[in-house]
């Protein structure tokens, strides 16, 4: 029996304990954006370090300015095999609105589904604890069945991915020699659909901003000042409305100048994929694509820049009614940007656009919440094509090259700082409700995800 | 010595205890919109009832569906004199944002000012506890000096003015015979400036609405759905922005059809008044009038309809950043409407305007927060002219007929239900910060306000 087959048998024999281990990790509420959960982030890092140590890795928890990194190296690989660095993140999003969760977010359960699959529930079940554990459990299976891994494996697990990875760049700079490998494997992306695996080769970047509009120097009574005094909620609404044209495009001057159109070959491939735009929106109760009217939904979410408002706050919002004109109003917004767009340039153009729409006696202030460029992976890479072949073998259907609307800024960091290309292999699904209440990871994602990594590791070792 | 002179002497002798009594009333946190303060509203009503009883009124606290009314009648007036009904309200606005108060809002103080005047500080110091106490203290002075009042006086004090007076109409209907008088005196308005008294003869009405936009049936991750999924914060911003044209006018179709232009005589009078538009806006740190560009500021705030956003809430607004597309977003808004506009028609037009701007797969819901028409008082009324003469005598400068941007819906109720005209005599100032942190009432407003009512009562008794 090949080492690969032996490892797959081990996966089958131990899948239930693999699920238990994932649930242990989900129980640690490692919310990185909330300072109250800093200890939980440390606990999650230590838990992972202990797991990797038990598998024979040289593992350690490395402090940063905020939440620590976990770094682990396997020393037993045969000579001459490729060196891969696996990346995942153990931090999770906040859970509000908590009232909408059907089960407590940090008390995971295994919930059988009508189709015979099960859900593993909880915050981080999919993003990214379930995903990162697919790789660790694949390593466990190889070690259990064969004593060694087929590749030289290093692992980097981050605790700040959901807060724009402030420590990653300095950390990579300091550890460049230690972490440099032939390729970085990242498990934080979706399948094409529940039956079709995918490797993500295009990712949008992110530009996050918080804007605060201030008008009068105090709250005012609308009966006295209404009409004559500028209202920051109205000014903010005007600014936000001005950012999208009626056709769904972003209305900042020159915004599309640097946007590269989708290569015709990729557009053709995407048009053949079984993407159901109606079902995609219907899944969340919508039916009208809100982006550029002349672009298909798949391009809107993968290949076109977007602008979204994430939160607005200002004035009186409690029970009852108060005819106040507040002094200030705040919004958190972001752009997803695509190949060719520079985050700093987008940020500057956004700020200029906003400033030009604020009355002369009012002010607008900006605070930066992260920025990263989009990433496009070369489609002719031998590693990419070996990994696609391994996925096709496991899932018995052709693996797709996909785009994604989300940002994984670390891919840019690995490329820019360590010169490594990334293979983005993920087993999440569109309906996993990541960042939302009732996040879940399908047992089949987890199970076949572990099996997929076994096959990918074996296939990469052939090269 | 005339009864009027004797009463004025009594005012002078007892002003300090009058201030103490007002501060006792301010100490009761009678916030009507907050159910947690229902007991405080009852306490304020009882306090006033006790004061009026001690002055010889037949006074009682009358329950309503929410906060009680105080009704009092003086039985000692000579025969054949006019019957006046005085109206005030003992409820106050909420105090948030509490952090901005320099003194606790319900611990009033008497704070000397550089110009020799003093401030009486606290929530309700001006609106409307200070104002209503000017009349009660004037009654006290007449009684103390002369044993009787020169008019037949009834008093109605409400506890729901700041929440759009839901109980007033049914209460007036039930007590029409009891409360009907020759005129209703209302003390809830401003002076022209600190030296110039005014009677308000034009008041805008109010249409309050709360709108909720719902798009997807759950919160979404902007990396996955951004661009394609409608964002309720963006939809809300678009709707709110669409309500004001770039020239500051309200952009609802047909909105100005029923708006009556200001009579030329009134416009001429206003242009002679010492209104300093620059100083009015400058007082709160602004300089650019935000209403209709072709209308002077005084018309914008008194005689033209306005639309204001009072609060917006939706999405993630805590510390940090969350790339969520929320499911819903909410705004509280109101219109101030003018002579000729029907609140129901304005509300319907607003809702139609909003609905037409919401994507077909999203919903918008509306909740009503009160509605009232504007009020215009006849300028040739003998009572009005006697009251103006009394004010001119007290302040030694010609009293003005003024407009006001605020709504006193009860004036409409008294007119429609009891057939009574109102005399709106108030001693507040533009800078009293009503509805805002650090509300205050000037001691001179209080002192000369009491004296003014003594003179008005005497003058009305002559007629």
Strand-helix topology:
Two copies of one chain form a homodimer.
Chain A: H1 3-26, H2 38-54, E1 58-62, E2 69-73, E3 83-89, E4 110-112, E5 118-121, H3 129-146, E6 152-158, H4 168-174, H5 176-179, E7 183-186, E8 198-203, E9 205-214, E10 220-221, H6 222-225, H7 232-241, H8 264-272, H9 277-282, H10 297-302, E11 306-315, E12 324-325, E13 328-337, H11 343-355, E14 363-372, E15 375-376, H12 382-395, E16 400-404, H13 409-418, E17 422-426, E18 440-442, H14 443-462
Could you please describe the fold and organization of this structure?
Two copies of one chain form a homodimer. Chain A has 463 residues and is an alpha+beta fold. Chain A folds into two domains: 3-203 and 375-462, Zn peptidases (Aminopeptidase, 3-Layer(aba) Sandwich), CATH 3.40.630; 205-257 and 292-372, 2-Layer Sandwich (Alpha-Beta Plaits), CATH 3.30.70.360. Chain A has helices at 3-26, 38-54, 129-146, 168-174, 176-179, 222-225, 232-241, 264-272, 277-282, 297-302, 343-355, 382-395, 409-418, 443-462, and strands at residues 58-62, 69-73, 83-89, 110-112, 118-121, 152-158, 183-186, 198-203, 205-214, 220-221, 306-315, 324-325, 328-337, 363-372, 375-376, 400-404, 422-426, 440-442. In chain A, strands 1, 2, 3, 6, 7, 8, 15, 16 and 17 form a nine-stranded mixed β-sheet that branches. A four-stranded antiparallel β-sheet of chain A has the order 11-13-9-14. In chain A, helix 12 crosses helix 14. The longest helix of chain A has 24 residues, at 3-26. The interface between A and B is large, with 102 and 101 residues.
